[in-house]
TrEMBL record:
Region (Disordered): 25-55
Low complexity: compositionally biased ranges: 32-52
Leader peptide range in chain numbering: 1-19
Protein keywords: Signal
InterPro entries for this protein: Cu-R_lipoprotein_NlpE (IPR007298)
Name of the protein in its database record: Copper resistance protein NlpE
Source superkingdom: Bacteria
Amino acid sequence: MKKTLLILALSGFALTACSKPTENAAEKVENTPQIQQSQTQASAPATTPDTTHNAKTSLDWAGKYKGLFPCADCEGIETELKLNADKTYELEEEYKGGKGEGKKFESKGSFTFDNTGSIITLDQAADNRKFFVGENFIEARDRDTGAKIDSALAEHYKLNKESN
């Protein structure tokens, strides 16, 4: 008899411990400040760019970049852009083939990063050109908006960084 009562008591205790929490208990858990804060952070969309991790702060952007840009009336424009750590630049462009054969243009000046830290703008000496700075490359962008160039030749507006 004592064994039966003991088994019933232990079974009742085990079943009570395994039961689902009541709605009131679940509401209390959801309303704790820590749970509310983490739910808010998880559901809130990112509205501001992460300015701590961008090209300006995270990449080794200083160096020499080379490539061949498209040209309307020649075979291409051999372009070399050197970005210095003190935010100065040297730009050399040489027209290849066609009417511009051998024409060379050079400009020097300073550049600035935009508020995202990923796009640079060269000064007036280089007609305020804009470039997106990526890992070991820079890419020419629209001069007015900084948007990616949208054309059939878009992939050819990239200069690759030379290794030292």
